[in-house]
Description:
The chain is α/β, with parallel strands linked by helices. The chain is built from 8 helices and 5 strands; from the N terminus they run E-H-E-H-H-E-H-H-E-H-H-E-H. It has a single domain (9-209), classed as Rossmann fold.
Amino acid sequence: MTPDSARGRFVALEGGEGVGKSTQLRLLAEALRAQGAGVVTTREPGGTAGAEAIRAMLLDTGGAGWGPRAEALLFAAARADHVDRLIRPALARGDWVLTDRYLDSSRAYQGGGSGLSDTEILALHAIGSENLLPDRTILLVLDPAQAAMRLALRDRGQSDRIGGRDTAYHARVAAAFLRFAGEDPARFVVVDADGSPEDVHARIMAALFA
Length: 210
């Protein structure tokens, strides 16, 4: 991948809670813009008005919540709108699209964490988003104790409905992410998220553009 390519590039940042995806997405966007690239930053669920409305339903801690299958359907619906209205048009313009979470979060959370099969999650993606995958997926990995410390500082006890699930759930999510990376090394780049934001950013840049 090259930052000066005339064709749009699609990069997803993935990982468990507290690994620093949002910070690294911002730093990567700044670096690409400094090199003259057009950059669109977004997130999942979200990125469009319809997907943001679904995000509120999914993550609100005040409701009764959703079962794994309903959750997967809602995430797939949000992603379909996101891909159709934001991601594909930006790529067609030649922009870089950087997203905080994408398909692999559904595979890890509703699949690995909640027990749905990968086949089911991928079938929803085929229907809703026509199998669009990132050019590169950056998987940020961090020791669970370090991630918990970051979350405590960030959330101050106010995690969303999914982030607040128990440690066993999040361990299954982390294991699923690593399994996906091992199965698809051409798409995934695994980056150690320990250290300062600047150190992690340097690792990401080296992995993307070495």
